[in-house]
Amino acid sequence: AQSVTQLDSQVPVFEEAPVELRCNYSSSVSVYLFWYVQYPNQGLQLLLKYLSGSTLVKGINGFEAEFNKSQTSFHLRKPSVHISDTAEYFCAVRDGGSQGNLIFGKGTKLSVKP
Amino acid sequence: ETGVTQTPRHLVMGMTNKKSLKCEQHLGHNAMYWYKQSAKKPLELMFVYNFKEQTENNSVPSRFSPECPNSSHLFLHLHTLQPEDSALYLCASSQETGWPEAFFGQGTRLTVV
Fold first, then answer.
1. C-alpha angle B103/B104/B107, rounded to 5°?
2. Residue A87 class from Cβ within 10 Å (0-12 exposed, 13-18 middle, 19+ buried)?
3. Is B95 on the interface with A (CB under 8 A)?
4. Which member of B48, B104, B109 has the closest CB to residue A44?
């Protein structure tokens, strides 16, 4: 069965600094990969997704992620964060071409400090 | 606004109460889901409905009872809950089960006292 590991439970960073949130998944022939963001007291909002094609995926709010099949990773990056990026970020995977459901990681809390 | 609306946003209930959570989606999707989000745990998939039929029940206790009267509405009926059931309950929808992308509601924060 698929699994997702988010290596950092919390990431503190100063405003305007770059950030990388790490995500690894268990291997599969093909996968769909997602990053969701959850602001306080809100539901999950899709940031970006990888379905196929280019391994560098750009999402909303200046975030991007790179699919690395050999390392089974899908790390999320932003070159310069803002206070408003403070939220919890969830990586999720679904087996491609199947009826499999989304499997989520435990989440990474990003805290952006002034 | 994601097109998935959950009510109420907050709910406090006693262990002997009966209450219901409601989810409505305006996206024309055919699959709907209930997830439970507890602190420090991954999101847990509870139930899946596809075209109004329940296709998955992930060993959820019978004190949680889902209902899907049509493809746009999903309910979660609650009775005799335990304090450990306190969590954020999230509803999601997708075009069909197996469709890559899912859209989430804002959740209902449930506290069982």
1. 170
2. buried
3. no
4. B104
Identify the pLDDT of residue A99. 62
- Interval A48-105: pLDDT, tens: 999 888 999 999 999 999 999 999 999 999 999 999 999 999 999 987 665 667 889 9
B80 Cβ contact list (under 8 Å, min separation 6): B15, B16, B63
Q: Tell me the average pLDDT across A7-13.
A: 95
pLDDT at residue A21 tops 90: yes
Contacts of B101 in chain A (CB under 8 A): 34, 46, 49
Task: Name every chain B residue with its beta carbon within 8 A of the beta carbon of A106.
Answer: 40-42
Average pLDDT of the segment spanning B33-56: 89
Instruction: Supply the pLDDT for residue A91.
Output: 95
CB contact under 8 A, B104 and A45: yes
Count H helices and E strands in chain A, helices first: 0, 12
What are the Cα distances from residue B27, in Å, to B35, B92, B102? Answer: 19, 11, 11
Residue from A10, A24, A31, A44 whose CB has the most chain B CBs within 10 Å, to mutate: A44
Residues, chain A: 114
